[in-house]
Amino acid sequence: MEVIAIQKSAFDGMKNELKELLEMTEKVTRKYTPIFKAEKWLDNQEVCLMMNITKRTLQTYKDKGLLPYSKLNRKNYYKLTDVQALLEAGQPYNTDGNGFTDQ
């Protein structure tokens, strides 16, 4: 077992910095928790399966502004209500077997 000795002031400083980091993390978590609890969010794969579309078609929907999304840690999320609304409105593009869209 290895023992490392540091000054009490350095240890207290590290302790305070960790405490501040924990408080910042909790603050951010409190900020975003209601958003995720109030609404069911889906990722790309879930949306593609639900709508029976390819990833490329999903990208087209995003590019055209047909399906709103939010990005968190480089991953896209979609509100279930937005996906359902697009399904109810009818998918604006149909894909043929090779993945191209007919407009």
UniProtKB/TrEMBL annotation:
<dbReference type="InterPro" id="IPR041657">
    <property type="entry name" value="HTH_17"/>
</dbReference>
<dbReference type="GO" id="GO:0003677">
    <property type="term" value="F:DNA binding"/>
</dbReference>
<keyword id="KW-0238">DNA-binding</keyword>
<feature type="domain" description="Helix-turn-helix">
    <location>
        <begin position="41"/>
        <end position="89"/>
    </location>
</feature>
<protein>
    <submittedName>
        <fullName>DNA-binding protein</fullName>
    </submittedName>
</protein>
<dbReference type="InterPro" id="IPR009061">
    <property type="entry name" value="DNA-bd_dom_put_sf"/>
</dbReference>
<dbReference type="Pfam" id="PF12728">
    <property type="entry name" value="HTH_17"/>
</dbReference>
